[in-house]
Structures are given as C-alpha cells and as structure tokens.
Design a protein that fits this description.
alpha+beta; 2 domains; two-stranded antiparallel ribbon; 8 helices; about 40% helix; globular; GH116_N; Non-lysos_glucosylceramidase; beta-glucosidase activity; GH116_catalytic; Glycosyl-hydrolase family 116 catalytic region domain-containing protein
C-alpha cells in the first residue's frame, strides 16, 4: 500500500451469513473488521477480505491493484497413499509470494501477451472465429485439471516403466498432465493429447518432450 493509504484485512467471515459486521464497519470507519463475529470456528465456509482506503482529490482518479492466489503445494489422490509436490514450489513459497510476483510482473506479462497475440489479431486474412478459438482454448492448460509436479525418486518404485531418459527429463522440467475432460478423469489421454501437442510443443517444448517420453517405450 502507498504511504497515504490504509489497508485493512478481515481474516475470517462466514459467507453464508449476512455479513452485517463487515458492512457496518465499512460504513462507520471505511475499514474492514479484523474478524466477523458471525464467523464460528469450524465453519465449512470461510471468506477473507482486503480493503484499501485512500483519498481521491476532485477531478482526479486513482487505481488500487489486488492479487488473489491459491497456495496448494501438495496433492493427494484417491486413497491418499502418495503425496505429490507441485512444481511451482521450486520458484515461490506461499500465497503472499505468488501475489507479490503477480503484482510486480503484471505489466511485463501483459506486454508479452500483447506482443504474442497482436500478429494474429491484426491479421486481416484470418477469420474472427479462428482468432478467438486459438487463444481462448488455451485456458484448458490451467483450468483442465492440469497437474505439474516436482520429480520424486519414489515414483520409480511404483512405476517401473519409467526409463532413465524420462526420469532425467522429469527431474529437469517436472511431470505435467491434464485431464481428458472433467467428465473423463483420465490424465494425458494420448489420442486426445494429439490435438494439443502441437500448441504445447510451440509454447512449452520441454513439457511436451517430457509428456512424449512417458509414452516412448510403447512405440
């Protein structure tokens, strides 16, 4: 926050309740309460809030930026027999670090996205539906139940089919996978991956190489 602004944080409120304490505090002081009295320990739902307060002189404008991140470094499946560590933990630790990185690099990311998309968007020879589809479908890389893990030496004990070549790639670039769909919970279904493989090879070639290496012994 800037020196002439004030940030207040509510560390817990029950989103299924009225939120009266939050709104009353905002109305009276312009700040959030530290905790909502309606929030009962052990509630199945929990909300948090962040508020930045500052003065805006007449005929001017100001902007406040916020970042939201989920930090879930470890993953369990099914019978919960094995832990998997997410790849991003190699680079950042905790939600606050994720938010700080996003706020600090937002302009850089937006510039890179514009430079990447503009040649397609400004190409008059390409139809509008194609321009929309070629970028919008990439959401599935993060929203398609995607998984990116750090390599674990214990994998080789249970997955004896992993070659030394594949394991070395995973140690360098992690192990990546995504669901065929939310209805079919199978990861990296090869016939479906065929359609995405070209885009992944162009954008993330080492990830694509690692995915292919898992199947190479079967060819």
């Amino acid at each position: 926050a800037e020196s002439n602004s004030h940030v207040s944080v509510c560390q817990g409120f029950d989103p299924s309740k009225s939120g009266a304490a939050l709104w009353s505090s905002l109305w009276d002081t312009g700040d959030l309460p530290q905790k909502d009295d309606e929030c009962i320990p052990g509630s199945t739902e929990l909300g948090v809030g962040v508020c930045q307060r500052f003065a805006v002189p007449a005929n001017t404008s100001r902007t406040a930026e916020f970042a939201l991140a989920w930090d879930m470094p470890n993953v369990l499946f099914g019978a919960s027999r094995r832990w998997y560590k997410r790849r991003y933990t190699r680079f950042v630790r905790g939600a606050s670090c994720l938010c700080a990185r996003a706020l600090g690099r937002r302009a850089q990311w937006e510039k890179a996205l514009d430079e990447w998309q503009m040649p397609i968007l400004h190409n008059p020879q390409l139809p509008e539906w194609y321009k929309s589809a070629i970028f919008n479908e990439l959401y599935f890389m993060t929203d398609g139940g995607s998984l990116w893990f750090e390599y674990d030496d214990d994998w080789a004990k249970n997955e004896t089919q992993l070659s030394d070549y594949t394991k070395n790639l995973m140690k360098q670039y992690g192990r990546f996978g995504y669901l065929e769909s939310w209805e079919y919970r199978m990861v990296n279904t090869y016939d479906v991956h065929f359609y995405a493989s070209f885009a992944i090879a162009q954008l993330w070639p080492h990830i694509e190489l690692t995915v292919q290496s898992e199947f190479s012994k079967y060819f």
